TrEMBL record:
Protein name, as recorded: 2-dehydro-3-deoxygalactonokinase
One GO process term, biological-process aspect: D-galactonate catabolic process
Domain of life: Bacteria
Taxon lineage: Bacteria, Pseudomonadati, Pseudomonadota, Alphaproteobacteria, Rhodobacterales
UniProt cross-references to InterPro entries, sorted A to Z: DGOK, DGOK_C
Entry's Gene Ontology molecular function annotations: 2-dehydro-3-deoxygalactonokinase activity
Length: 278
């Protein structure tokens, strides 16, 4: 006996990879799947027997709307690239990214996460911190709209400096490094060089070096984004390791931080998006 039919599919493409979910008539997804990039989407869909369902893709397609605005704009037509490995045509439409011209910023495929968080927390006014594998997005929220954006490439810089992203091995060690550059962000480049040199000299092991690098980068980012989070309600929605890193530094500044589950927010936002737009 066949299971429930997939009526619509939501997909999210970020630097961390591809996520897709199929929805029927209920609120919960019928299935979820992960891949490396958009080229994996046809195989994920075919494996679920859902090739006839339209696909709403966040993080691709080029459509944009300017903040301030709601996190979910109407889906946009998309002349999508030909995707390999599919047994039938897949109809793709784009979930517009949120954009800002000054300073330049893009939401980068995180629209479902923002929308889901706001649907779960409808009276939230404050700042969302959305850390990912390569980049972190800060979004100022007021009256259910995204008012402004600020983006940082701290995850990518951590990897480039020899670390393993923004995950933490030892919280006190990470916090010490973060406090240093939060207080004196001009030390960042020196601290990254020192962490690498200390590892080469045998003064630090890999885990300690990675904590120093991650802490230095998050601390400097927090200094640069101080106007966003100072005195605000703050919620963190992101991958477990980076989300913990940001929450620790924010809490050390005396801020109450709401830690929201990434999967819960993403699924809720995707459900809202396909309900409104497909």
């Amino acid at each position: 006996m066949e299971g429930p039919m997939t009526h619509a599919i939501a997909a999210e493409l970020t630097a961390g990879g591809l996520w897709a979910a199929g929805f029927g008539t209920g609120a919960a997804p019928l299935w979820q799947a992960h891949g490396a990039d958009l080229n994996d989407l046809p195989a994920l869909i075919d494996a679920q027997g859902a090739s006839a369902a339209p696909v709403l893709v966040a993080g691709a397609g080029g459509a944009r709307v300017t903040v301030p605005c709601a996190p979910l704009a109407a889906p946009a037509p998309w002349e999508a690239p030909t995707l390999p490995g599919t047994t039938s045509d897949i109809r793709l439409v784009a979930q517009p990214m949120l954009s800002q011209s000054s300073p330049p910023a893009l939401s980068g495929g995180l629209e479902f996460r923002v929308a889901g968080f706001l649907d779960l927390n409808p009276k939230f006014d404050g700042v969302l911190c959305l850390p990912g594998a390569e980049a972190t997005l800060w979004a100022l929220i007021s009256a259910d709209e995204v008012v402004s954006l600020s983006g940082f490439r701290s995850g990518a810089l951590a990897r480039a400096a020899g670390g393993a992203g923004l995950s933490i091995d030892n919280a006190p060690r990470f916090a010490e490094a973060a406090a240093d550059t939060l207080d004196r962000p001009e030390r960042l480049a020196a601290r990254l060089a020192e962490a690498g040199a200390a590892r080469a000299l045998g003064q630090l092991d890999d885990a300690a070096m990675q904590d120093r690098i991650a802490g230095a980068l998050v601390g400097a980012e927090m200094a640069a984004s101080r106007a966003y989070w100072l005195g605000q309600n703050v919620a963190v929605v992101g991958d477990a390791g980076p989300a913990r890193a940001y929450a620790l530094v924010l809490e050390a500044q005396g801020l109450p931080v709401l830690r929201a589950d990434l999967d819960t927010c993403r699924v809720r936002g995707a459900r809202c998006a396909v309900s409104q737009g497909l």
